[in-house]
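Final report, closing paragraph on structural work. Over the funding period we assembled a curated collection of sequence-structure pairs, and we close with a single example.
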Amino acid sequence: MDRKLMPIEIDENDSSVSPTPVPACPGCRMVKNEWPGEGYTHEGETYCCQGCAEGAGCMCVAVETPGFSRRGQRFTRAEPRPGEQRSGAPAPQGELSGERDSLGTEEALDQGG
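Its predicted structure, as stored:
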């Protein structure tokens, strides 16, 4: 069976066809491909920088060229917040935090279950 596949034609002026939304920072609306650093996650949202996540103002605008760069990554580096890791994720609690590792062997074994 020889069947020719016909390409689907889409009228770009058709209002019922919506383009795929481009990922952007919920704080300043900067497109993700223009972020100078890796981004910052806070309360389930990914922002371009910690300033946008905290509402303190976008730090990315101070980087001259758009897009990921070593300078941009250093400039937008996040500082850890109380109870969070540098990425903005919640800090681990209990044994996952390394709490037992800071104790001597005997004390750690005594605290075990």
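Residues 105-111 form the longest helix (7 residues). The CA atoms of residues 44 and 96 lie 21 Å apart. We thank the funder for supporting this effort.
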